[in-house]
């Protein structure tokens, strides 16, 4: 819901409706009508019958839901009755100043909600015997609404700072006034007591303050946050501690009135409030519930006022006792919340303690408490939430306490032993501790990583415990493998008919779900081996490096045993067991992460060499398996069973993970430690006499053979499900499936090898690479012919072209020979085109269109476009791109234009536009032609023809299919484009294929395809206009119409796209606003000559709406400000030019023969009175007189709420805008009749608590903007000076109210 919607939703409407329904008890038709509107705005549907039969709390709750929606979507100072931004009811001097009524409404709503929460309306529910869950549902809605109201007025309303005391006083009075009962006590049917309500309200308030409102600037959120922390949090903390002490006293049996025993919900409310207070974001930007383990806050910045309570000798022990005292009697949620409180107390920042003695004593309490908890873990180790929270506590100990501090504690050795036992138990109980694994791995990695900083006289005992931890982790992963895959015996081959290859593949695909979900319902970590999984393996590799010489024998034996089972299956011509492959995959991932950690001892060098040789032997077995399956005469297709999530895929991805990190360490530029490992590897492989450089060549050759084996084996017999889903729009936006994952990682490894300075040149010497670069090896791998893997094809061709350009002195003939297999498809199309032209007497387009209907030809053309696009991406230097352009122009570009004219396949159109974008993109200034060359004009003509051809077809399709033909105003039609697309499904399906390029699409796919094609078209046009390889002045001089035709097509596309579509499509918004900025910067003459005024205003309205939308990206908003600044610059420079003409005329009329200076007439002219409106200004302001003023105000407001550090984009727009206001001060710039700074200051001070003083402060700051700018120009020197003053203005505005 937006505050600009009609009819406007105001706080007063919600307040009056709620009071009318609750207090008066009257349901008049007007109230019901208004309530229905409020409910619909909140996403709720309420009929008159429902309201008539429902109880009053339902009506109040739903009104509060509407208020919640409103408060979450309004601007920082919403006011339904505030004047228009351009009205003049408030003058700069403060006479007649009015205050915003929003704050007074907040006061009344807060009082009303307090009454609604504590009043006797629940008595009706108690007498009716209604369920307690429904009542709590209504109450929680009221609490959320109350917290939002307090948050909205916390900075402006002084009495809101005492909200905690007010809440406690209100509920104390409610308790004394027989809340919920008739006899002064809480009734038995009351589901909630006043004490519990008070705690719940405080809890909700603390949580709501920490929520960042997306509609609110971050600086405003920090102000609210800091104000609440300083004014309210201390009182809430005192209440929390008192409640915790009362709960602990009652558990110990020392309480006379067992309140918590009578109301179990009171325990939950108390602990929840304690968690919210202790986990409060004291900085203002922390994510206390983040999923990223490594980025969690490591310390809590408690206020200094809490030191008296927290550092009390009895406080922390009593919290530990409270956790253990609750035991199993409390719910898991309560114990988890209390453990979170302990977690926060364990990681208090260092400056909170006054001396080292207090800190050491606190560390002793932390270790004693964790020891006490770990001694009783058997009862709750199988509770995933409790275990994860405790592991989180352990993980945050090390960042707050140094290892030397831990070593000085007398309980260190016992604590380390208990933590080791707990870690091993957690690893072995992996079905229940999956969420705890990351915390434990990070804890041990941090602990062991600081061993080098420990004092030498202290014993860390890591050599005793770390091997146990690593062993438990490895053993748990081996056990996990058996839970996701069947036993080896069930996977063994057989000669029975049921074990035919087809039956085995069907059986394998049927077991995919079992492989994804284990026996305990856990997800297989290897199915998503990215992100957190890789981090966990890296942390565990740090532990493995410490004790590698101790555990390498056991791990090598485990690896050898599974590798022998794998080898036996290969030799017997049967598929290996899934358990064996899964175990090998876990070990390979661990070995790959180990390659990232550098070795430092001789034992580590030997162990690394042993691991590398074992991995190479495994990869040789895998390649042997692939060769058996890929052989033409193979009678063992069951050797190849691959499905999504299969163990074969996991093992392949693990080996590629190993090769990636092995390449970084040992191939190419190596270190001395790497050379020592390679020398030992030579001994193991029998190459003792080989040089290190030759050894790297052999390793590189082995890695290339592995890459070729993967590309050959993993792309045969590929079904669409195995290849990946794609998006149906060219295969660029989605690539799932097992085989595409393996192929993608394989191509990434090949790309990394080719990009290396040493490894890339070594690859060129290998015969395999020479074969791949030849014309015979252009289509060696079958994945290049698959319809869903176009992105992989582009990536592969980019890599091979990069290798080709690494060869020094490559000639034009070599590049043409390399491109011949791809352009051969275009040559065949050209030959068919010429034949059709000869047979049909010049009507070749129809013959080309019929020829492109064949599916095989469509795939060939799309594949050729992908290959050519991939080759173009590798052309980084000017020489390489020039050779590529010479190889393609002009014959092949003409063929591509013919395809753009006749193609009816949606994938072909998308890939053609992607190719055109890549060719026209002046990346790294690669497009540069000699002065005597016409290449720049030819490339621009190609881009213009592509945009005009495809853009015209798209526009005709929209007009004919959606609007039924005829004259259509695209600016007006764009507002309902989405609805019209959905309504036109029947009409679109009835069109011919040639006229409707997406006739086979669903309604949603049509919409997505239009968005994608529009984005690509605008991107190609933007590259052509901003590429700087064509002189547009030459085109104008020779009356060439290419530029005007391109701009006309682009302008129609810009008019077609509504703001709602741009906000939902970030990529389209980025290129849309960038293209508008380009047009407003260099092609303003086109706007004046060929565009209607309301069309220009329509595009400017989209710019203005985009700047008001919070979902707009930074790139798009920067382009929007550049467009506004360019248009304002053109207007200001036009006014300066008009004044210069007046100055010249005035000086020509002065009598110089009398010795009077010729410039005296100019000096006597008023500064701002001699400018005249430009034609563009007159055209725009005639329709919207306050356009530039509104832009200035919008840019200033966005500047003030922006939290970024760079203000350059605002300065680029504000410098010409403010110059315009100064130049027009005598005519339209006096917004309030007082000149430039006063009018703008008046608008900026609206909504302030003291508008008169704020307005004067704004006047001072605005006058300083032009300090130091002595020349009337918009050049770099003036802009830099203006940017400095703008930064001062923003910093000074933070102190204004």
UniProtKB/TrEMBL annotation:
Tagged with keyword Flavoprotein: no
A GO MF term: nuclear export signal receptor activity
Exportin-7/Ran-binding protein 17 TPR repeats domain ranges (all copies): 521-715, 738-786
Keyword GTP-binding: no
Superkingdom classification of source: Eukaryota
Localisation per UniProt entry: Cytoplasm; Nucleus
GO process terms (BP): protein export from nucleus
PANTHER family listed in its UniProt record: EXPORTIN 4,7-RELATED (PTHR12596), EXPORTIN-7 ISOFORM X1 (PTHR12596:SF2)
Region entry Disordered, spans: 488-527
Low complexity compositional bias, start-end: 488-517
Keyword list, A-Z: Cytoplasm, Nucleus, Protein transport, Transport
Cellular-component GO terms for this entry: cytoplasm; nuclear pore
Family under the similarity heading: Belongs to the exportin family.
Official protein name in the record: Exportin-7/Ran-binding protein 17 TPR repeats domain-containing protein
